[in-house]
Amino acid sequence: MTFASKITIVRICLVPVFAALAFYYGHTVASGNPLESLRWWALGVFVTAAATDGVDGWVARRFNQCSKFGAFIDPIADKALLLTGVITLSLVDWGEPGWHLPLWFAAIVILRDCIILGGIKILYVNHRDVEIVPHWTGKVCTVLQMFTLGWVMLKFVSISPIYPCIIAGIFTIWSSVAYIQQGQKILRG
Questions:
Q1: Among 20, 27, 16, CA closest to 94
Q2: 127 phi-psi bin (left φ>0, alpha ψ -120 to 50, beta other)
Q3: Nearest-angstrom CA–CA distance, 155 and 177
Q4: Beta strands in 113-164 (DSSP E)
Q5: So where are the chain's domains?
Q6: What are the E-state strand segments in the chain?
Q7: Residue 13 to residues 8, 42, 53: CA-CA distances in angstroms?
Q8: Which of 78, 52, 81, 56 is nearest to 67 (CA)?
């Protein structure tokens, strides 16, 4: 196993740590006695895990450690972190009542990933070569989703998380359509 892949495995291991800290912080908020240190620890673990995404890719390219295992495990680690963050922050208030991600946002994010996975499966079943090439809307979507997670966790601005969710939700839907169109072109040959 390459060093780059070990970094990716560390990211996967940080996901349940983040989830535990986030849920425990939410529990302290619900009890009326929030432990802000837990929020900062959860945020720190999340940021560390997110940062390793760039680090493992850089290490793999810089030191010629690209591998099939790394190419397989990296997107799994990315999705595990992002989906855990979205689901956790949809279920747990991080401050005043309603300071969380709305459930419709979590549903859109999960549905998009299911559409992409289902599309890849359809292409494989139809013996089409699937070269996973991120669309620009997918990259913007991921950045906006991360920004929205940060908005909830940081609580710096008193503007409701609904507004960044709407913007990220629009790009999530847009990228879903873009990937469906890409898949249809591949399917048609």
A1: 27
A2: left
A3: 32
A4: none
A5: 1-75, 101-189
A6: none
A7: 9, 14, 13
A8: 56
Task: Please enumerate in sequence order all residues whose Cβ is within 8 A of that of 55, keeping only pairs 6 or more positions apart, or say none.
Answer: 7
Amino acid at 109: V
CA distances from 54 to 4, 38, 62, 110, 178 (A): 10, 25, 12, 23, 24
Q: How far is Cα 105 from Cα 168, in angstroms, rounded to an integer?
A: 8
What is d(CA 89, CA 98) in angstroms, rounded to the nearest whole number? 11
pLDDT for 121-152, tens place per residue? 998 898 888 776 778 888 899 889 999 999 99
pLDDT, one tens digit per residue, over 70-84 is 878 888 898 999 999
